[in-house]
Amino acid sequence: MANASVTLQISTLPDSPGVYQYYDKDGKLLYVGKAKNLKKRVASYFTKNFDNHRTRILVKKIETIKHIVVKTETDALLLENNLIKNYQPRYNVMLKDDKSYPWICIKNERFPRVFPTRRMIKDGSEYYGPYTSMKTVHTLLDLIKGLYPLRTCNYDLSEEKIRADKYKVCLEYHLGNCAGPCEGLYSEKEYHENIEAIRNIVKGNFKDSLYKFKSQMKDLAANLKFEDAQRVKEKIDILENYQSKSTVVNPKINNVDVFSIISDESYGYVNFLQLSHGAIIRSHTLEIKKKLDETDEELLQLAIVEIRQRFNSLSNEIYVPFEVELGEEMKVHVPKLGDKKAILDLSERNAKYFRMDRFKQAKIVDPDRHEKRIMAQMKKDLRLSEEPRHIECFDNSNIQGTNPVAACVVFKNGKPSKKDYRKFNIKTVEGPDDFASMEEVVYRRYKRLLDEEHPLPQLIIIDGGKGQLSSSLKSLDKLGLRGKIAIVGIAKRLEELFYPDDPIPLYLDKKSETLKIIQQLRNEAHRFGITFHRSKRSKQALNTTLETIPGIGEKTVVELLKHFKSTKRVASASFEELSKVVGSSRAKKIVGHFSNE
C-alpha cells in the first residue's frame, strides 16, 4: 500500500502515454518504465500483490514519482530506452552495450574510398552496418575489391590537381586493383556507377551487379574478346558464390526485421534477423538480464527498440512470435505458416543455440550460477514453494509379482547422489500390487529419515500415475508429512505430472531442462531398481538349484560357478571334472542330485 505522499503523486498523474521514473528517499533513480496510460500503470504497482521479491522491495522504496508525457507510445518506447541506457537504474533490465561495432564507410569524396571503420564521423560520408563481426566486413570488402577497381590512396583528387599532373599512378594500378583516377585514366561518372553498385551489394542486392556483368560478358564474347569475357565471368562466379552462401529465404520477403525471444528465470535472449532482397544479411542475439520478473512481451518490446537503434534499421515491417505494441508506423506481423513462419522459427533456433552456448560457458566458468538457475527454473516449472535442492524418486520393479523390489534414487542440486541411493525388498505385500508396494516403501523410507533425524527432500517423485501417488500420500499422512514435502507422480507419458488433489495433470515443455532432469531421475530409478531385481531373481534361481543340494553351501556354489560359468554346465559335468574343483565327496553329492532329477 502506498504512503500518503505517493498516493497524492499518483492522483495527479495524467491518463496520457509517457514515461515514469521512480526515485527513493535519497533521490536515486530506481526504475524507468513506459505506459499507454501513466496513471493506470503507476497505480497498478501499489494495488497488485507481486510474487517477485525484487518488485516488492522496489515498491517499498518508492518515495518520488516523476513523469514525462509524450505524443505516442512509440515515442515512449524510444525515450524509455534512452533513459535506461543513460542512467542504468538498478531495477531495470540491462540494455547497456559498450561494444563499438564495425561499419563500412563510403567516404564523401570526388572518388570515394570504401573502407572499414569503428568511428562514425559526420562529414557527409555514408556508413553501412554496423556488422556484428569484423570478419563479415573483410569478406564483403574482399568481394567488392574483386569486382570493382577502387582507389586506396588518400590523395585530394580534385579536377585541378589531376589536370596539373600532381599525382602518378602507384603499384595498385600496375597490379590491376585501381584504374588510375589520379592521372585521369578513370572517369568520375564510371567510378560513381561502380560506387552505386557497391551500395547495392552492401545492402544485400546483387541483382543489378549480376545483370551488368552478364551483359558485359555477352558483349565481349560477341566481339570475340574471349579473355576479357572470361575475366568478367570470374567476377560473376565470385558474386554468385557469395550470394549462395547467404541464407536465401524468399525473394518476395524484402526489407523485414525478424525478432524472437527465449527466456528462463533470470535472462531473456532476443534474436534479430535482418532480411534484404530475400536473404539474411544480419543475425544478432541480445542477452537481457531480468530484474523484476519481466514478461517476454516487455523484454521483446525493449529489445526491438534497442536493436533497431543500434543497427540503424529502417525497415517498417517486423515479424514477431506474438503481438507487441510498437506504434502505428510499424507493421507488426505474427506469421502462422509458410516461409514467413519458417524464418521466425529460424530466428528462434538461433536464440536457443545462443542460450545453450551461454549455459555451457556458465557451467565451466561459474557452476554455482548454473546450479542456481536450474533450481530456480525447476521451482517455477513445478510450482514449488522452495527450490528442489534434494529430490527423491521411487520406482517399483517386479515380473508377474515375483521378487518385488523398489528403488529410491536421490538427486542433490540437479545431480545424482549415488551414495544416498536405497533399495528395498517388499516385505508386507503379497503378489503384484504396485500401489501397496509403493505405500510400504515410501513409509519405510521417511519413517527411517525421521527416526534418524536426517534431512528430508524438498520434492518426492513417484514413477506412476494417480494410483501410486495416492498410495504414497497415505504414507505421508501416517507420518504427518503431508504438505511439508512436495510430491508429484509422473505418468508413462513423461511430460504429464500429477499433483495431490488435482485431477488435471501439469504438462511440461518437452524441451525444458526441468523435464530433462525428471527424465534422468526416472531413468536412473528404473535402472537401479531393475539391476536389484535381476540380482535378486538370479540369487533365487541359484537357491532353487545348486544350494538346495544337501551338503553344498554358498562357497561351494560360488566355486562351481566361477569354474563352470553356469548351473547347466555344472549339471552336465562328469564326476572327474567336479572332483577337480570341489573334491570327490561333494562331486558325488552333485552327480547324485542331478541323476535323480
Automatic annotation (TrEMBL):
Domain UvrC family homology region profile: start-end pairs: 262-476
Keyword annotations: Cytoplasm, DNA damage, DNA excision, DNA repair, Excision nuclease, SOS response
Organism ancestry: Bacteria, Pseudomonadati, Bacteroidota, Flavobacteriia, Flavobacteriales
Family: Belongs to the UvrC family.
Record-level Gene Ontology MF annotations: DNA binding; excinuclease ABC activity
Domain of life: Bacteria
Span of domain GIY-YIG: 15-93
NCBIfam families: uvrC
HAMAP family according to UniProt: UvrC
One GO CC annotation: excinuclease repair complex
Pfam families linked: GIY-YIG, HHH_5, UvrC_RNaseH, UvrC_RNaseH_dom
Keyword Cytoplasm: yes
Primary localization: cytoplasm
Ubl conjugation listed as a keyword: no
Localization per record: Cytoplasm
Record PANTHER family: UVRABC SYSTEM PROTEIN C, UVRC/OXIDOREDUCTASE
PROSITE patterns: GIY_YIG, UVRC
UniProt-listed GO biological process terms: nucleotide-excision repair; SOS response
UniProt name for this protein: UvrABC system protein C
Family matches, as CDD domains: GIY-YIG_UvrC_Cho (cd10434)
Subunit structure: Interacts with UvrB in an incision complex.
Gene: uvrC
Cited function: The UvrABC repair system catalyzes the recognition and processing of DNA lesions. UvrC both incises the 5' and 3' sides of the lesion. The N-terminal half is responsible for the 3' incision and the C-terminal half is responsible for the 5' incision.
